Predict the 3D structure of the following.
Amino acid sequence: MSEPVTVREVGPRDGLQLVGTVMPTQTKLNWITRQAAAGFKEIEVTSFVPPKLMPQFADAAEVTMSANAVPGLTASTLALNLKGGIRALQAGAQVVNFVLSASEAHNQSNVRCSTEASIRAFRGLLDWQWQNAPQTRVTVAIATSFGCSLQGDVPEAQVCAIAAQLAEAKAAEITLADTVGYANPHQVKRLFRAVAAEVGEVPLAAHFHDTRGMGLANVLAALDCGITKFDAALAGLGGCPFAPGATGNIATEDTVYMLENMGLRTGVDLDALLRLREDFAGWLPDEPLQGRLGTAGIARTFAPAA
Ligand code: ZN
């Protein structure tokens, strides 16, 4: 049986945030355009963080405007606080994905405030959006939902309580993120089921890092809970500058390959994606490319989902 599943590319944001070399704006836009042409409907294209802190995203407004013009693409952007969120909406972002951490230690390290203060900022952003840009969507990701490299354990009850508040505030979507690659498949099932019971109709999405090789197993576990939207980064690029030891997202090409092989339609042209990966290697010659499909190639028996 064929079912639609969405893979949201986050490489231009999550992937690039740890890359020291600033990618030229035109290269970013070439990447985004080609990936959209390969069948991706949503790409997280940039981050509205202070350019002084992250020069990689000094071109956030320009990338957002240009990505908005790519046919068929929803260009989403990331913000960590109210100011960044408003800046994104003022720049014309169609979607702002607000990130806060379930781990107090990670939230303090990432945005220098408590998780509670971040939830208040999220409410403030929704108020601003409601009044000034009602046609846009404000989504939210709960980072370190499965554990934290600074704090250690993150209680599931805490993640559920945060998710309930975000749903009540009318988040358009809630992503549970395994920012540091601590999750295992049983934990993924437990937490997604528990959170789903808290958030009513608000759609859930999953964001896994493959830091410890658990990424695709966790995707499968989330699929079993009815989750149909997954973040991934081309060539497994990514990490978190504030979480020691965090490395790449699950590789987009491996994720698409697994889903399509299982008969789950992603709408992605895998050959076009692998050609993009080859060119991408030339754009970031100092970055090691992750992911297995790019090395091994597509199996002779592979048939995309009908
Ligand atoms: Zn991430």
Notes: The longest strand covers residues 95-101. Residues 14, 177, 179, 207, 209, 238, 249 surround zinc ion (CB under 6 Å).
